[in-house]
Amino acid sequence: MLTPIDIENLTKYQQEVFKEVFASKEDFKELKQDIRGLQTSVDSYMKKTTTYHQESVVHKHTVKRVEDWVKQAAVKLGLDYNP
Questions:
Q1: Dihedral through CA 78, CA 79, CA 80, CA 83, nearest 10?
Q2: Which of 69, 72, 74, 80 has the fewest CB atoms inside 10 Å of its own CB, making it the most exposed?
């Protein structure tokens, strides 16, 4: 027969074993914080990428306008312009 002390020791042992096997609320809190940190990093990177793309489009348009102006100036000045 098991004595009350044996039962208490067995219960404590089971609690220790299951604590390692099953995740606790604290484990999920840490995981949530990690996911939030990753999400913030991804959002920040996405914003930088979007801004870079928009600036690239504007820069490309500006270069095109300057090149068109140079072509027109070359024609008026009688110069040969080959880009």
A1: -130
A2: 80
**Burial annotation 9-21 (CB, 10 A radius, 16+ → b, else e):** eeeeeeeeeeeee
pTM score of the predicted model: 0.55
Terminal-residue alpha carbon distance, the chain: 97
Tens of pLDDT, residues 1-29: 778 888 888 888 887 777 766 777 887 88
Amino acid in the structure at residue 35: I
Residue 60: both structure tokens together: 């490309």
The answer to whether 50 and 60 are in contact (CB under 8 A) is no
CB 2 within 8 A of CB 10: yes
**Predicted pLDDT of residue 30:** 87
Distance CA(4)–CA(36), nearest Å, equals 46
Using the structure block, give the residue that is written with the tokens 């072509």: 71
